Amino acid sequence: MKKATFIILCLEGAILSFNVAASAALIPSISKEFATPQFITARIVWLYMLPYGLAALFYGPMARAIDAKKLEFFCLALFSIANFLAGISRDITALFIARFLMGIFGASVIPLALILIANQVSQNKRGKSIGLFFSSTFVASLLGLFLSGLIPWRWLFLIPAAAGFICCPFLLFYLPSFKPEGGGFKMDYLSAFKDKRVATLFGYIFFISMFYHGVQQWLGVYFSVHRGFSQFLISMLITLTSLSGIFGEAAGGMLSDKFGRLKTVNSGLILMIVSVFALLLKSPVLVLTILMIAWGTGWTFNHAGISAMLTDLPKGFLNEAASLNSSVRFVSGGLGAALGGILMQNNFNLGFMFFGTCFLFLLFLTKAHPNLSDGLVRTFARRV
């Protein structure tokens, strides 16, 4: 893949991710300006996530019938318009509609990027490209989160809108045209799931995302209620998980090329297991700092390895796999956050023990289940 093409993909990922993490932090400011209860304003989160998860299912199959370049341009332009509408919204209803549209059109970026990388990059270098791509999304997300406390909330939508409009002509110029020969719109999820290897891989993605978000979404509450930390210290600890993710995605991608997808996935899972069980102890802040770095690194090692593994799937399933990856992660992440709330509300140690045990079970499955091994994924790809 040409460097200019890859840079465009990374810019798209950054534009998509800029206000994802910041959205929850903007709720108080938006609520105050529109005189709307915060629990109502908080709908801006799921009004983005739900259409994102559903729309993602269509973009992979659509890339069979429509040139991915044209599809990327169309969706980025509309995503930028939706951000602009959010930034100039006059009431909460207009903002809700804009967020809904952002979810629909933003869902195109990750699936199409994975498809392009899979088709433009050799297998032994895909992990590095995928890792760097997701690192760019972490950088943008962290930057948006940081700026959310410094600038008016509307600029968190106007900045990616402007960046998207600027990126559009470069996308047309540098992104290669790609349309599979003889391709047509076809959603073949049923055929994909008939193969146990594909079903097992996405079952793993569903549960790892659920368990991760069951912990991640409640760390701030844990630090506040159970440890009594200040807002500043809580924010710094949570920020460490994103900072470490920037390194983790890039390093995880390169490690998956050098040592194998599954070894990278499991090394990340081990870091997550150690971090969760260590939270059962009342550790000093310095130890918690190390744990948050290990937690963020572990998640991104796992994420990079799994994402690289997806691009190794058979070409006939690649488009469905790229779409399912985004869809499944968003749906299971929401379920995990809800489950975590139920457990953590009763007892934080119970919640950490539960999710830590779940991570251990997943580690056992990846070592015992042959369908997740690198060798079989590659063999399956060649056979099909």
Describe the structure.
83% of the residues lie in helices and 0% in strands. The chain is built from 18 helices and no strands. The chain is globular and about 55 Å long. The two termini are 24 Å apart.
Quick take:
The protein is mainly alpha-helical and 384 residues long. It has 18 helices and no strands.
Write the layout of secondary structure elements.
Blueprint lengths: L2 H15 L4 H13 L3 H4 L1 H23 L2 H20 L4 H15 L2 H12 L2 H25 L7 H20 L14 H6 L1 H21 L2 H8 L4 H29 L1 H18 L6 H27 L3 H32 L1 H21 L5 H10 L1
Helix pairs in contact: 1-7, 1-8, 1-9, 4-6, 4-16, 5-6, 5-9, 7-16, 8-13, 8-15, 11-16, 11-17, 12-13, 13-14, 13-15, 14-15, 14-17, 16-17
Q: Descriptors for this entry?
A:
83% helix, mainly alpha, 2 domains, 384 residues, Growth Hormone, Chain: A, single chain
User: Rounded to an integer, what's the Rg over CA atoms?
Assistant: 20 Å
CATH C-level category of the largest domain: Mainly Alpha
Shape: globular
What can be said about the biggest beta sheet?
none
- Relative strand content: under 5%
CATH-scheme architecture of the largest domain: Up-down Bundle
Task: Compute the number of structural domains.
Answer: 2
Structural class: mainly alpha
Compute the average pLDDT: 80
Quickly count the helices.
18
